Fold:
Amino acid sequence: MKKRLVEIAHARSGDKGDTANVGLIAKHAKYYPLLEKQVTAARVARHFKGMITGKVERFELPNLHALNFLLHGALDGGGTISLKTDAQGKVFSTALLRMEIEVPK
Amino acid sequence: MTKVVRIAAGQGFWGDWLEAPYRQVTGGPIDYLMMDYLAEVTMSIMQKQKSRDPSLGYAKDFIPLMQRILPVLAQRKIKVTANAGGVNPGACAAAVAEVARSLGLQGRLKIGIVTGDNLLDRLDGLLARGHTLANLDTGRPLRDVRDHVLSANAYLGAWPIVDALRQGADIVITGRVTDTGLTLAPLIQSFDWRPDAWDRMAAGTVAGHIIECGAQASGGNRLLDWQRVPDLANVGYPIVEARADGSFEIVKHPGTGGRIDVPGVTEQLVYEMGDPTAYITPDCVADFTTIQLSQVRKDRVRVSGVKGKPATDKLKVSIAYSYGYKAVGTLVYSWPDALAKAEAADRILRQRLTDLKLSFEAIHTEFVGADATHGPLARKELAADDLPEVQLRIGVRAREQAPVDRFTREIAPLILNGPPSVTGFAGGRPKPEEIVAYWPALIDKQVVKPVIEVVQV
Structure:
């Protein structure tokens, strides 16, 4: 069945210049393989279409049951240049948690 | 008994909770109080303050804070590492010394001062000798914006702080050092770790990363089960309890609020993360994919297994430069049709800016309450007709100040000559802001010479 990531994962994000990072953490170790398989860099890039101008990179941290995404060109220039409310990407993580993935019953 | 060293986080940024350091030094045993004051563009603010008054240019809040806690520090033999010195660590140290003397601590306190990070006066020489200081994000050479540079500081690591501690400093005040160096240095000093003990360097760096944002590792700004984090009003800031083998535990003082558990520490670990296999500092390259976390008991998380690789031969340089101007205006529209009214106001405003022939690098509109943080992802699921209110938030950015100034006069007229049911303009006309932008670069380590001075109060 389809579930939103918010049901099986939590997340925190931050910034480096115009790049936002989103750390996506499985709520339970058993969910990590689902994240690893389905929440690909390409899928995340599609999810954020229209919100970021650059590429998406993904890194795996199986030891923490977590994935780290770098979303380039996410912050309208970033830091002090940006005109966005979320100029430092602090809540970009919560936007990723809207994504739906297939979770076995 | 195995030696344990306790390092407590007191400030996660300049402006953090003023009660936290006092609670850390009085709430239980600690050996070091670590305080991080410097965000990316903080140095440029301090540089401006110093140019107006040569005795300024550091985190001024640090002085009354030290006045409050110095007697406890002296009595309990707690040492301090803080990058509160900004662009003027000497003046910061002098102010702390004065406070210490007024508290009757003369002869009982040594202050260490770490400088050498400030490259502003050396920039032209460095550029002439072929150091391009190219922007790490864009690749552009610094000479493109040289005339607009306001501050330039290399990030020093743990070792200059270690030198100051070895010379007997009780309080080490630095300019730009890495957040993690403030925690790693006391561990190197306490356990006499060698510079090439890369796993130990990495472990101390991870410890520093976990506590450098203060309560963000102990229940603050924590997403998972956030409603069940107890007593945030009384939150205990995190403390590293480290052992010589590089393993450590994250704890907080007994009787404090917040929570220290594996999910919370994990959230902090991924904060501002890049490539987790290469967390680069001046002291080592830490591999976050080797970190093992386990819950020892309530509010105690063990961190072990951290692996590190040799440090690179570069230092990161944080450069701030004058970029241009921006302003942000807001108006609030109420039900019925709150979002439609705000959208209409945005269209009208943009039409007027066009008709005035104002030229901007960017115009950015958000509808707060509808799409400000989640953009189109939120819009497609929105019950727009039900929104009780929406805030129109529109910002402009330009290299010149004039168009931004003119923009600030176009918000208020919309109250009477735009869509109806508008309020929330009590703050008056938006203020144009100078943009000080951040330029990250690398420089050869060998050209940066840290300077360590230790003075008796």
